[in-house]
Automatic annotation (TrEMBL):
Name of the molecule in the record: NTPase KAP
SUPFAM superfamilies tied to this protein: P-loop containing nucleoside triphosphate hydrolases
Species, as recorded: Shewanella insulae
InterPro entries for the chain: KAP_P-loop (IPR011646), P-loop_NTPase (IPR027417)
Residues covered by the KAP NTPase domain: 49-352
Endpoints of the signal sequence: none
Taxonomic superkingdom: Bacteria
Length: 545
């Protein structure tokens, strides 16, 4: 029975051979690796020490830390188990996924056994050569032509209705007896099938010997862990062939496979081969004993791994002499500073994917890098426009040209469309720092000073729906007037209901004050969105990606 191990990723790790250097895990994933280790160890060897095979699909969307998880997990397990790590994407230049896995197993298990390249135990089995040749259709066709004197593809083509009665000739120009040709092909295929079966049996025997060598020489445990990473990024044909190889050839007792994929993306890959109507989910279920889905990290943690979030901090803005209001962060008495919490609240309201969150944040950072000194900008509003353009181009275009309460086609307002199509913007709330005390000495409000001094709301953090934030901000940015209707309504409401802390009214007055300090109108925001949206980020080669 395998022993229990503890996995801790709270500190950085540099492997003994200095090949890899892992930062501390920021996504808190060690507990999943520990759970899966014990689960797979129990599947690879039961209480009676009988060995079994097992294939697990580790599912996680792009950006969720899949590769970091798999590579660091593999590095930790080498202390206790035979381990092989294969980056399928980096090796899909090969036409043979079988050779990809076999070569990785031979090299890595030999190193873990402490053997050199000349050790006869870790040589490629002779029978495997026949299997590799048979696995390549072009080579198989060449073999058939050489030994049978005929091209099997040509015979198949001649079987079409239009070709009935035509003569098929061999390579010497002689007429071929079709009955004899078919008999030879069948005979060859039977022999080829038998050769494949023998080669597969020999291969399984060799893999078992390699694993036992590592276990015996290095005092490690069963099972052997074979990690296949980045399969969803491979070309479709290679990905499918890799799955077939794992399922039909590597059902070896004492060996467990972990195949890491973005399973939804892999299903698209499968459909690229078999058609959009193909049931890719059921098809993939044939290859895996079970599927384990890594929970997506919070957007705050995701951004701390993939983006230079320091460039969205208040300290960075201050260093650049940039004024941003309202803040992207949230400061609370209980939890302290929550970096980018308001920004990620907008992302959540739009239900962005991890990739979209990273893309949008990189675009926002690119805007900040291009702002001039003494700029006064509303980055939350800009983030809203980025998200709207990403999710609904029609609503984005309408937002730039129509007032939020203005009716257009069919007497439907932009307000109604936003609520209808983006339900979460009315539900999710931002936490905005409001300081009504700063309005007391505003010259234009002298006539209302008695109201401010008697009934002013206390400075502090207030919850405000995203829709209210957009409704007020959009109106002020488009009108550019400090004496807006919104401001008049806010003053009138506070004068009549002065015992009520009406967050929308206080936010309106403070937003109007900030807007007078900014030179960014709706045209400027549109330019920023259009310029930055042309920036498309490739998938980062981050150690935590």
């Amino acid at each position: 029975m395998t022993s229990q191990i503890t996995i801790d990723w709270s500190t950085p790790l540099q492997t003994e051979d200095d090949r890899e250097n892992f930062p501390a895990d920021q996504l808190v994933r060690a507990k999943y690796a520990e759970f899966l280790t014990h689960f797979l160890a129990s599947k690879g060897e039961d209480s009676s020490s009988e060995k079994h095979s097992y294939v697990l699909n580790l599912n996680a969307e792009w950006g969720a830390g899949k590769s970091y998880f798999l590579r660091r997990w593999a590095a930790d397990l080498k202390e206790e188990y035979p381990v092989v790590y294969v980056d399928a994407w980096k090796q899909d230049y090969s036409d043979d996924p079988l050779m990809t896995v076999i070569s990785s197993m031979i090299t890595q298990l030999r190193e873990q056994a402490g053997k050199n390249e000349e050790d006869p135990l870790f040589k490629t089995p002779r029978k495997l050569i026949g299997l590799l040749k048979a696995a390549a259709p072009s080579i198989a066709r060449g073999v058939a032509t050489r030994y049978l004197g005929i091209d099997p593809v040509k015979i198949i083509q001649q079987a079409d209705d239009d070709d009935i009665g035509e003569t098929v000739k061999d390579r010497n120009g002689q007429d071929i007896d079709m009955g004899l040709a078919a008999s030879k092909i069948v005979e060859h295929l039977i022999k080829d099938h038998d050769a494949k079966s023998d080669a597969i049996a020999s291969l399984k025997l060799s893999v078992g010997q390699w694993v036992r060598a590592v276990v015996g020489l290095q005092k490690k445990q069963h099972p052997a862990f074979i990690f296949i990473d980045e399969l969803d990024r491979c070309r479709p044909s290679y990905a499918v062939e890799m799955l077939e190889t794992i399922k039909h050839i590597f059902d070896i007792p004492g060996v467990v496979f972990v195949v890491a994929t973005d399973t939804e993306q892999l299903q698209h890959t499968i459909k690229a081969i078999y058609g959009q109507g193909f049931d890719a989910r059921t098809y993939l279920g044939r290859f895996f004993n079970s599927r384990y889905t890594l929970k997506a990290p919070s957007f705050e943690k995701l951004l701390s791994v993939h983006c230079d979030v320091e460039k969205l901090s208040e300290s960075y803005f201050n260093d650049r002499n940039i004024k941003n209001w309202p803040a992207l962060d949230v400061q609370t008495e209980d939890s302290g500073l929550m970096p980018l919490k308001n920004l990620t609240t907008i992302y959540n309201a739009f239900s962005l994917s991890a990739r979209q969150v990273i893309q949008t944040t990189e675009r926002l950072i690119s805007v900040v890098e291009n702002l001039k000194k003494h700029s006064h900008v509303n980055l939350l509003y800009l983030a809203f426009l980025f998200c709207l353009r990403e999710k609904d181009q029609f609503l984005y275009d309408t937002m730039l040209t129509k007032g939020i309460t203005q009716n257009f086609s069919g007497q439907q307002s932009l307000h109604q469309l936003l609520i209808e199509r983006l339900v979460n913007i009315a539900i999710n709330k931002l936490n905005i720092r409001l300081d009504p005390s700063t309005l007391i000495n505003e010259p234009r409000d002298n006539s209302l000073n008695p109201i401010w001094s008697t009934h002013i709301a206390p400075d502090g953090q207030y919850a405000l729906s995203i829709f209210t934030f957009i409704e007020v901000t959009d109106a002020l940015i488009k009108t550019g007037s400090q004496w807006s209707n919104l401001r008049s309504e806010a003053i009138r409401y506070l004068s009549n209901k002065n015992n009520d802390v009406h967050v929308k009214s206080w936010f309106t007055l403070l937003a109007e004050k900030e807007n007078t300090l900014s030179t960014y109108g709706i045209g400027a925001y549109k330019d920023l969105v259009e310029l930055a949206s042309a920036l498309d980020m490739p998938e980062p080669e981050s150690t935590q990606s």
